[in-house]
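QA checklist item 7 of 12: single-chain prediction sanity check.
[x] sequence parsed
[x] length recorded as 238
[x] structure emitted
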Amino acid sequence: MSPSSPAPAMGIRDEVAALKRERILTAAVELFYERGYENTTLDAVAERLGVTKPFIYAHFSAKSELLAEICSRGVAAALQAMEGALAMADATPTEKLDALGRRFVTAVLQSQKYIAIFTREEKNLLPRDYERISQMRRDFDRKLAGLLTEGTATGEFRIADPRLAALAIGGMVGWAYVWYRPQGRLSVEALAEEMAALVLAMAQARPGSPPPGKAAGKVARQAAARPPRAGSPRGGRR
């Protein structure tokens, strides 16, 4: 098969195996989230599924493999969001950062339980799995810092330390898994829009290079509504 040839289609047997793996992962996520990794046995996962433990061993060699797969899901989703934004043809750094903000927030919110488990249970990962997932996180931070550096070089962003800014943005968005509630006041789409505007504000995206869509207007309105600093000639009442 040549390098440009498409990957072979998944056969029925592979599709069934993939579905079974997902069923096992879903049950494990619920139990790890509810009880914690150390307090959850494979017997409990099998019981939740209504199967025997050999059913699980047919797809995962150990509980630690289940944990590694769960912990990598949220980071992988964030990396996928990053790759999609960076691949936008002819887009400016501001447009890419706006798209990344929306996709990154969505990835975090949709992976809420996976990220919560990773945060709580990373100490239980095998060293090789911990290093692999940590490398994925470093890759994300490096690419975000690169995008911020690019935008600073073109004059679209005002950032003194892109590496620090990348960590700050990652921390703000990544922490959303703690406070987000699926039945809360805002939908995932609305939260993604609002937080993408905050990401652009953190980068101090310049008005001359506005992002597409509503986020640009929101950033401009937020800047206009910001109260003047003490001593400013505009310090009077509005």
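[x] summary fact logged: The radius of gyration is 22 Å.
[ ] second reviewer sign-off
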